[in-house]
Amino acid sequence: MPKQKTHSGSKKRFKITGSGKIMKQQAGMRHNLEGKSSVRTRRLNQDKVVSSADHKGVKRLLGR
């Protein structure tokens, strides 16, 4: 049986930590940044842990 390929888009968007958590970049940092407050842009710039509901699907896309 052939090997399962990793989803190309997912490997660019998600990182797995040493403890097994899946991290993602938050949305909202691409455009219209002048209209957003500095506090908001700093908050959006932090990585976040993927929710437990999406955890199983993301792991499957990453081939884990």
From TrEMBL:
A Pfam family annotated for this UniProt entry: Ribosomal_L35p
Signal peptide: none
UniProt keyword annotations, A-Z: Ribonucleoprotein, Ribosomal protein
Molecular functions per Gene Ontology: structural constituent of ribosome
The keyword rRNA-binding appears for this protein: no
Annotated spans, Disordered: 1-64
GO BP terms: translation
Listed PROSITE patterns: RIBOSOMAL_L35
InterPro entries the record matches: Ribosomal_bL35, Ribosomal_bL35-like, Ribosomal_bL35_CS, Ribosomal_bL35_sf
Cellular component terms per the entry's GO annotation: cytosolic large ribosomal subunit
SUPFAM superfamilies linked: L35p-like
Biased composition regions of type Basic residues, renumbered to the chain: 1-15
HAMAP family attached to this UniProt entry: Ribosomal_bL35 (MF_00514)
Entry similarity comment: Belongs to the bacterial ribosomal protein bL35 family.
Protein name stated in the entry: Large ribosomal subunit protein bL35
Originating species: Candidatus Lumbricidiphila eiseniae
